[in-house]
Amino acid sequence: MTDTVDKTPAPSVPPEQIKAIPVRHYGRWVAAAVVIAILVLIGMAFSNADINYGIIPDYVTDGTILSGAWHTLYISVLAMVLGLVLGVILAIMRMSSNPVTSTVAWFYIWFFRGTPVLVQLLLWYNIALVFPILNLGFYKDEMNQVMTPFLAALLGLGLNEAAYMSEIVRAGIQSVDEGQTEASHALGMTQPQTLRRVILPQAMRVIVPPTGNEYINMLKTSSLASVVQFPELIKRATDISSTSLAVVEMYFVACIWYLFLTTIFSIVQYYIERHYARGSSRSLPPTPLQRLRKNLSRWGSFRRPEVAR
């Protein structure tokens, strides 16, 4: 007789589940503790300092401070517009095949980027020491009457900004493929039409982000106009502190206004960048408002009870 062999397959034993043990990052905890300790020490130092925090909210909406904030806003806008217009012209001159115009543009950029804004403001404000009389042929007057603090601030900030904007615009124009220009010329478009209708609209994706950063920087750089007696925010805050002796408190007030203005224009810059990035191949990330709506809808669906059918 032959022995019968049991061919019943043995029950499969599942493999033991692997238990993953997370890596402990002790350095992160130490770094977090050090940062928190530093923040606590800074907070304690300012809380025990001789600062009258109670008057800060009153001066934030003071008429003199509001006037300074308004002057800061419009001098920065006008100087940025002047810098943008001149920057486009200088960028075109810089890329020109004409050696005279390209050399003049290079020299302008070299000079204004290589000298401090403060020095340029002081030069414009004291230009009457060099040219006491302004004589244009059809107009003649004393330079002291012409070169007001407003004009000195506008020229000092705007002409300096033009040097930086020209490089930004030039980089944006050069980012557009040359085939776009060739195709435009093949359609019979002139060089100005090609630049206005084809090149610049495509270059805006590259131009807009650094331009927004330049304007936010202009808001803060406009504080240097106080040295030429232009009544912007720092000048107004300094005038109040000289009579009230609340020096640090007025600087806190100025910081609040600068933070407010830069935050507003950072939001505007964000949506302008999204507008010009719509034609790119990359999908746009959701805006903060869209993310908020999505989270609220998820929360609403989670809290909504199911209806029995």
Automatic annotation (TrEMBL):
Domain of life: Bacteria
Family annotation (Gene3D superfamilies): MetI-like
Record-linked InterPro entries: AA_ABC_transptr_permease_3TM, ArtM/GltK/GlnP/TcyL/YhdX-like, MetI-like, MetI-like_sf
UniProt entry keywords in alphabetical sequence: Amino-acid transport, Cell membrane, Membrane, Transmembrane, Transmembrane helix, Transport
Family: Belongs to the binding-protein-dependent transport system permease family.
Pfam families listed in its UniProt record: BPD_transp_1
Topological type in the membrane: Multi-pass membrane protein
Domain ABC transmembrane type-1 span(s) in chain numbering: 69-269
Subcellular location: Cell membrane
TM spans (from-to): 29-49, 69-93, 105-134, 251-272
Name this polypeptide is given: Amino acid ABC transporter permease
Matches recorded under PANTHER family: L-CYSTINE TRANSPORT SYSTEM PERMEASE PROTEIN TCYL, MEMBRANE COMPONENT OF AMINO ACID ABC TRANSPORTER
